[in-house]
Amino acid sequence: MNLAVKTQGLRKEFALGWFRGRLLAVEGLDMEVRKGEVFGLLGPNGSGKSTAMKMILGLLRPTGGRAEVCGYRAGTIAARRQIGFLPENPYFPNFLSGVELVRYYGRLSGMGGRKLELRIEELMELVRLGGEAGKRPLRTYSKGMLQRAGLAGAMVGDPEVLMLDEPTAGVDPAGSREIRDLILELKERGKTVIFSSHLLEQVEDVADRVIILHRGKKLREGRLEDLLAKKSEWQIRVQGLEEAGRKELREWLEKRGVQIMAESAPRERLEDYFLRSLPEEIQR
Amino acid sequence: MIGCLRRVLAVAGNTFLEAVRQKVFAVLLLFGLVMVGGANYFTEFSYQEQFKFLKDLGYASIGLTGLLIGLLGAAQLIPGEIEKRTILTALCRPLRRWEFIWGKYLGLLCLLSLMVGIMAVAVWGVLHWKESQLIASEGSDPAVADLIRAEARDPRMLQAVLLVGVKLAVVAAMAVFFSTIATSTTFVIAMTLLVYLIGHLQSVAREQWMESGEATRWVVKSFLVLVSLLIPDFNLYNLIDEIVAGNVVHWKSTLEVAGYSMVYIFILLGAATLTFEGRDI
Fold it and tell me: pTM, whole model, 2 decimals?
């Protein structure tokens, strides 16, 4: 199987200081993420999502077990070449401009010269920070703009895997939609995206598979269709069926001993309605 | 190799840029320049004493301002990045930890070099201004005018500035080492200052112990050897005082001190790399 990330028995304990014992943050995590899929890491605060991500990134050393990125041991230079990271909050050097940030990250990835400048231009356009916006200092950016600049920075080395820690936390619905669209665009480009989020609706929109963590342990893992489908129920959405037709349909179903659980006109999602209500330039 | 150099230079450039975009460093530099410039207004001494005073205060100003800038800069290097969490987005890249440490040190060194350079030019300018003032007031006698010129255009200034520079480079390396084990900026500043003081006092303490006969006991002897190995002897840089006093200091001695400093810089940065390598971020 073509795996982007694989962990086996991954474990992390933190020493809490002298005579204060140890904290178990991640316990025996087995996880496989295939290349090209969007993978959601779910769990309440303190469930070990960020710790697991940091071990995959090589920022934390596992107490036990192992992690691999595209076949390379996590933390090695070869593994870090394959991975881009967007942290939970926009932790970027705020004295830089958007373009300078991406250039800095590009140079840290060993890039330089004309190739890097072209890549920066391409990425700033992709995250809609081209032109003057990219030249402004990061401290003047909104949270959504910061996340988009960070995403450009994560992508500068053209990594195979992107890890996004709560990418839409604190971002307004329009910014959040933009980030979601970017994730889908990355998937179309064949990239693997691993992200954590508390906003489960958004996870549902973009993730192919998810893993649910609780107190450092894996509770569930699987494809969203498999995890969420209610196999004993069936749902049909129709258009143009008048009241007489509905009544006939109900009778037909009752004759077959089917129990009608719910029946209503579908509602638009609040997020879609909200975004549709905004002026056009913000919707874009 | 080019990629490695690029990464070190990227970290160095970013460190330097961050420092020069902060007001606190400009204020410190201004404070140093005011100290140098202010020394010019002490005119009640003889011309020899005036030059000695100007040089003494000039080099001391460079040293003090450099120490403050170095401490503040180094304190922000790693604990500051950990506090702001900007280190996460840097170290998750294909960047080796030693490249990060050396890049940080190089950036700090660039900042200190710029500061020492600006202040040395200021000292040089003040000495030349004083030369023109004194020649106008006291230089009717060509012999006196020559002596004033010799005092103002003392080539040993280069040696003094080099010694101040390498001393600051050692202090910066010490601060970088402490920043790799520290969890707060206060710890880095406090530890570096403490070791700086011990470095100044260790030779005096050693002499005292030798004279009192205490050093014959193996425990004391081992302790003294350990301290003198671990902590640089900052009294070696007192050659600057000899230069200010007008005594001859050979370039060989200056270069020996520079070499001694380089050895400590490499040891400190090596130790910093080793401790930082295994650190969880």
Answer: 0.83
| Domain co-membership, A251 together with A141 | no
| Residue A258 maps to a domain | yes
Q: Name residue, tokens 């023109």.
A: B132
Strands A38-42 and A83-86, by their bridges, are: unpaired
Which residues in B lie closer than 8 A to residue A108 (C-beta atoms)? 7, 10-11, 90, 93-95
> In angstroms, rounded to a whole number, what is the distance separating the alpha carbons of residues B196 and B199?
5
Q: Predicted ipTM? A: 0.78
Q: How close, in Å, is residue A62 to chain B by CA atoms?
A: 10
B21: closest chain A residue by CA: A95
Total structural domains within chain A: 2
Q: Pick from A204, A228, A252: which residue ends a domain?
A: A228
B263 and A CB contact within 8 Å: no
A77 and A21 assigned to the same domain: yes
- Residue B23, pLDDT > 70, answer yes
Q: How many CB pairs under 8 A join A and B?
A: 76
The reply to whether A235 falls in a domain is no
A97 shares its domain with A215: yes
| Tens-digit pLDDT profile for residues A16-53 | 877 778 888 899 899 999 999 999 998 888 888 889 99
| Residue A185, domain CATH | 3.40.50.300
Residues of the domain holding A273: 243-283
Q: A80 contacts in B (CB within 8 Å)? A: 92-95
Does A178 lie in the same domain as A68? Answer: yes
Give the nearest partner residue to B7 out of A54, A85, A110, using CB atoms.
A110
Restricting to B residues 11-50, those with a Cβ less than 8 Å away from any Cβ of A are 11, 13-14, 17-18, 21-22
A267 and A203 together in one domain: no
Classify residue A157: in a domain, yes or no: yes
